[in-house]
Write a structure and sequence with these properties.
Elements lengths: L1 H20 L14 E3 L4 H10 L10 E2 L22 E2 L1 H8 L11 E3 L12 H5 L6 E4 L9 E3 L4 E7 L5 E8 L3 E7 L8 E5 L5
Length: 202
């Protein structure tokens, strides 16, 4: 009987481990390559970078995706970095699109490849406050393409301004909705502030 209980316990442990590994697969595809320092950074190039991440997944605390236009691990439990799923979260996508440094005092331009797993030092509230050398607060009325709107919990970049009260926003939104371009009215939402990135060259 004791042997049966021990074997049952081992089986439970192994099945739990297998279940846990199901949430730890995508990041093995990611890398930790150094970024490429860039002398230029255009809003058009940033649009292209963010647009290419459309249809990829969302991973809270993440920053790694593979450009296959699908979330490889959808519906992971939210707000859990240990799931190691595909995609950036809202601030990770903004960090990589804005070519920022992991050092908050640097305002240079650093190109991060999609499969480079990096989130950056900023959360949504940090972006909202304009924290870090590359970032600053902007008036929402003047926020343009590749500026952003940030609240204490979310940040999304202006992909295209609209004449109808909202904007086309590119954002990593949630596990169920992933990364995409959505029509949002953050510009008129008092919980959101405008934020920009210094150093655009065109």
């Amino acid at each position: 009987m004791r042997r049966l209980i021990v074997l049952f316990g081992i089986g439970v442990i192994l099945s739990s481990a297998a279940g846990a590994q199901a949430y730890h697969r995508f990041w093995v595809n990611c890398n930790y390559d150094a970024p490429t320092f860039m002398t230029t950074m255009t809003r058009d190039a940033a649009q292209d970078y963010a647009n290419a991440a459309r249809y990829e997944g969302y991973q809270w605390g993440g920053g790694c995706w593979n450009y296959d236009d699908v979330d490889s691990y959808p519906y992971d439990p939210p707000a859990d970095t240990s799931t190691h799923g595909e995609g950036g979260d809202c601030s990770g996508l903004t960090f990589k699109t804005w070519r920022e440094s992991t050092d908050t005092w640097r305002d240079g331009r650093y190109y991060w490849r999609a499969l480079r797993n990096v989130h950056g030092p900023y959360d949504a509230a940090s972006f909202r406050n304009g924290n870090g050398a590359p970032n600053h607060v902007v008036a929402k009325s003047t926020a343009g393409v590749m500026d952003a709107f940030a609240s204490s919990t979310h940040v999304g970049m202006v992909f295209m301004r609209s004449l109808y009260g909202g904007d086309q926003i590119v954002e990593a939104k949630c596990e169920a909705c992933g990364t995409n371009i959505f029509y949002r009215t953050y510009r008129s939402d008092s919980s959101y502030g405008g934020v920009g990135r210094w150093g655009w060259t065109g």
